[in-house]
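Margin note: ligand = fe (ii) ion.
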Amino acid sequence: MRDILKTLKSEHDELRQLFADMEKTTDRAKKSRGHILNEIESGLIPHAKWEELVFYPAFKARADREGLKSHAEALQEHRAVELAVLPDLKTKDTGSVEFAGSAKVLGEFVDHHAKEEEVTMFKMARKLFSKEELAVMDEEYDQWKGSPDAAAALANALKQPSPEPVA
Ligand SMILES: [Fe+2]
Ligand SMILES: [Fe+2]
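Resulting structure:
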């Protein structure tokens, strides 16, 4: 049977692998760093958007106080990545040591967040949702990923301009 929690976990693992690949690059690997960053965004953004639009609200509707706290924490971590950590990384030259350092911070952030989801929210969700519900959510996620909405969310995030340099 399909299982949304397994799908989300395997996407976390794919992201972890991409950050490990990034960590192995040198400052001379400008092109492959740009390419890996693109893959990271293509994996991260639809995943996070769908969690925010569908999974988190469904989870919140059934969660107890501990669950609500995990939910609030997860949302705040998404905001930190979306508003600060990822945009900051995108202002850095891919051939610089600053890029390497910022990419590492984003990787650590994502790993921490993913681990929190896996050991708290997903564990709770196993009890809050039936196997059938988790299968339906997985099906719906798959369809959403191929939708214009998902493509627009990604395109919008990818074209975020870098902030104006301070004069
Ligand atoms: Fe998340
Ligand atoms: Fe996640």
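The first helix runs from residue 4 to 24.
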